[in-house]
Fold each of these.
Amino acid sequence: MSDYNFAYLDEQTKRMIRRAILKALAVPGYQVPFASREMPMPYGWGTGGVQVSAACLVPEDRLKVIDQGADDTTNAVSIRRFFEKTAGVATTGRTSEATLIQTRHRIPEEPLTRDQILVYQVPIPEPLRFLEPRETETRKMHALEEYGLVHVKLYEDIARHGQIATSYAYPVKVEGRYVMDPSPIPKFDNPKLESEAIQLFGAGREQRIHALPPHCKVVSLDFEDHPFEASKADHDCDLCGSGTSYLDEVIVDDAGGRMFVCSDTDYCETRRGAGHRGRLAATGQEDAA
Amino acid sequence: MDQAVMTGGFSDPSIQSAWGFRAAMNAMARPGDILAVQGAQAPAPVSVAAAVLMLVLCDPETPVWLAPSHDSDALRRWIAFHTGAPVVAARGEAAFALGTWDSLVPLRDYRIGTPEYPDRSATLIVEMDELRAEGAVLTGPGIKQAAGLNLPDAAAFRANRGLYPLGLDFFLTCGDRLAALPRSTHVTTPAEVS
């Protein structure tokens, strides 16, 4: 602990990131450039999220880190350990106990409260990037509120597939002004972007921070005749039986057998702890007995 | 250099900055919320809350403009010693400005950002005689339904909102308490609501 400044980053770097976060909160959905630092992990492993978390953490925080909803994958475990070591903060797997949650590609199922902060790891923050590769142009498009291309993209989905096939990183319009990429969360999570919690998005390689204050108006783009739909796999969780949570499909044998389980591991465990059982949870029940 | 210049900083900069920022962020994310901070003391008449904000946010990269109400040799030296921020002569050069409302105006001279970079705008720290959650009615991002705050001049903040997404962002400070008003907030007076 004494080997590092609190939360790893030096104070001047944290001030720079903190100023960017405040401007990001003042202009919801706008991507604020910041001087992203090299972190002791490769780009693509959440360097942006880690820098935003480091700038926000206080010693009293209880940190939760999830990767695609799971607390126990490599990325989540290593980032949790990183802050245990460099900030000395407590950690938890429980959504309800956490004060700061760093996430890769999911929003927890359990509604967040006003005492929580959600920090997203963002790979490509620019919603127009795959439509227009030049930063000079996308910046101008945001300035002029020129978002026709995004609708063309969604329309092409309909022309080709009969429906909007974009299922993750689904573009949203924030407070009627900026089109924002909510990081590659499944579109199932889009309605949860209107939250009680502060949401901060950090893209380390792309050097951008954007944010959503609580109760911010976030509208998923759609058409009148093809309204937005927060879709998920049409199953119940095979472990906890939940019919409303976002599911992962898991191949379980060589014969095409498969099961659907909650992507949010804490949500699933909490439900099983409360006695809920899914289709394939019989063995789990015996273990518990 | 006299002793007063060198005192009044954080005793544990890393931790106290983190606490101070958390309060500033919560204020900016929830316009109208009033939060208490502690740990810094700048030469009079700077409030504790304004001193904390300076220590948390200012450094050699952020030009500071001091309004006549606050400009003094002692404060300039305190800022130089604790933050290293350059004190500039014109409103238009400032990233941060500090003072009472009457000496901070007119607002038109501050940087409001550019259409491509609306973040390149000034943040004003407005020292207030009192801070109460009543008066002007605030709505917009960060506010569930409506919040109240005793703003010095509702019309000026409404004009600032008219520039959105450009515009200025404000911290309002009084004693050890602070609130914030980002450019995204809609400001109305109670008479207009009823």
Amino acid sequence: MYVAVKGGEKAIENSKKLLAEDRRGDPRVPELTLDQIREQLSLAVDRVMTEGSLYDPELAALAVKQARGDLQEAIFLLRAYRTTLPRFGDSEPIDTAEMSVRRRISATYKDLPGGQVLGPSFDYTHRLLDFALAAGDNRPAAEIADAPVEGDMPRVTEILNYEGLIETEQPDDDGGPVFDLTRSSPRYPADRAARLQNLARGDEGFLLALGYSTQRGYGNNHPFAGEIRMGEVAVEFAPEELGFPIEIGEITVTECQMINQFQGSASQPPQFTQGYGLTFGHCERKAMSMALVDRALRAREFDEPIDAPAQDEEFVMAHSDNVEASGFVQHLKLPHYVDFQAELVTVRALRKSFEERIRDGSEGSVSDAAE
Amino acid sequence: MAAMTDIKPGFHDPVLDSQAVFRAVLDAMARPGRLHRVSHLKDVPAPLAPATAAVCLALVDQDTPLWLAPDMRSQGAETFLRFHCGCPLVDDRSTAAFAIVSGGKLPGLDGFAIGDDAYPETSTTVIVQTEGLATGEGLVLRGPGIEATHRLAVLGLRSGVWREWADNGPLFPCGVDLILVDDQTLAALPRTTTVTEQEA
Amino acid sequence: MADVIDHPSRAAATPPDTRAATGYNFAYLDEQTKRMIRRAILKGVAIPGYQVPFGSREMPLPYGWGTGGIQVTAAVIGPDDTLKVIDQGADDTTNAVNIRSFFAKTAGVATTERTTEASVIQTRHRIPETPLTEDQILVYQVPIPEPLRWLEPREAETRKMHALEEYGAMHVSLYEDIARYGRIIKSYNYPVKVNDRYVMAPSPIPKFDNPKMDRMPALQLFGAGREKRIYAVPPYTKVKSLDFEDHPFTVESWEQSCALCGAGDSYLDEVVTDDKGGKMFVCSDSDYCEQRRDAGHQGDGGDSNYATRNEIPENETSSGDDR
């Protein structure tokens, strides 16, 4: 009966104190620093930046710490902060072809210009709990290669495009401002810019499951991992007073281009199509899932039948955001006793008339009523 | 381009003055025909009325294209609106979120954006500068926001405006909304308000 | 009422403000966001019952916990306002307390628990029992603004249905209830038609409250943050609960009256007093109940433990978790 009790404000204050205590844990254990989180839990930080749609490893680390490692809570913290920030303008589009690549793999060619660069990856680790790590991480740093990674690293899509085998991505730049999901409410049907923004902010688990479902026949689109690359790209901004772009910094991104089959149509020759994924930091699973779902959501564009959840634009976009989803699921904790009372009154009344019918009437009328 | 020093000042307190002016407009829109005074701007560039300028500073910005009727254009007014609101000034009134017009030369209401049935809110809010507003006499107003009827006298409108207004209502949910201005005073007529002339 | 209502500048009269104190703007939201919300509210008022899409922002409170109502209140409220916040009819529910303190902190506005003293009332799930006046604005927190959502989950479809005033499916659904149960079983969030045009979700208020919306002198604003919609009912606007000629709309009633204040006309919460079916009924509107008790009204007392716990006024007796 907590709600009937006076002093809600004090209860809330006390709850906050208990939370802070639990967050800190045993005070004899040294407190985590933001540096430690940023450097040693970097994939958590990357996910929080990606779904929080704010590139700031320092703040993301703070969010992870404050959220006690609950990444959805950390994403929410970063989003709520982001929404208060002033906007100075839009950067130039980043050019991932110019990336300082740390990882680059393609599943479509055995070898290709620039080569396969495994980089830091869990892929070929044996998933054996490393008890040595428990005792402390003293292993030597990776050796420096004899030669640097090849600078010229054309994207697989460019290689395919040489033969005209893949659709060319046309920026739908009509000169107007790009739709901004964080400033206006989406309209359906949504354009690809709106969809990609939504997917970039979307929950990794949700997109993973949807992407997976497309592989199992729910909106199959025959994907190949054309290319996945991760590394640093320059961010350029053109201040109005300068009139030309200047580099304002560098960010780490992961990009995935899925290559998908397409039969062609009356007006288009058969060629491959693309699904695209991009994240801040190193979020490979997310980038791949995003690319699968992006391609699935292009079903309308290619006149494909729309019968699977991953192809259903409204279903995907309306439910991908974990800040929205988490809030609404958890709001069920709030008191609903007024509505519940209304339901009680209704159910009692229904039962009463049911019993009256049982008592007074023939069985026939009861079964009619229950039809 | 006028020098910065030529631009008339905006709100003394942009946050609280915007809030006060918005509440005046909200109450005006919610209770059609009631008069509200907004005295937050004293010195505004002609031909803008103080209430017109105040409404713009409170509600117009880079996201809302503004259309100025030909007789409402002046370098002072345009510089003022561009500087304080940052709004694009558009040539085509059917693309405007807000429009400023004079009652005497009010262009046909059907030329403004009326929205569409799916998104009827994408219609123009037309700020009409009049030569006088008074309650208790004149037009008889009915509709949401009005308990029974409300009287409002509007001076300085060209003829035929209320006939066009009678054509605006049936467009519902589409249609334009009016904010009527007289110096520092304003009233509003949302698309739901019906206007009857010449009634006892 | 004066012929012209004055809206003076408050800048000079405002005490050293909360803006510097909190590091955030007055009422938290930045001015561009407020303008966007204010424009949406005005269009909502001009198109009664129509859900205006708006660029809802992430708030420092979770979606589903009143972010729509909070954004509407933040866009509307000024230093002269007095704010009341209720959840389930009560001022002291944790969510109401939390939202009230958010505005006390970020806007420095006066707050009250008295319905009659408030100029802005933000509510979740109830309309106060005390009739509201022309000088008040009622802001509803709305979880699902689309009344047709249960029949058709797609926004693209429901938007068409509203545009075409195509509400047959809603009537069919209500009539199916009658065929099956002999009555419409929707007991809260009961759909209404506004000004004879739009079918609207009144938010999950009990249908007991629906009649209060009809021709209410106060302005009613509705905010759905997660769903990014704002809508409104202007004062004195017709709000009709959907029904059928042979099955007219009715509201809940109780055989009991409030155990604390004796009110027989208020919405009652059922309070369970033991695990053997013991229960009592008390007003859901805590202020209404308190005003009645202050005026000398008494109920039959019900369960004495419960009555003692709810004696008014009782300043911060307990945090609740030690009960």
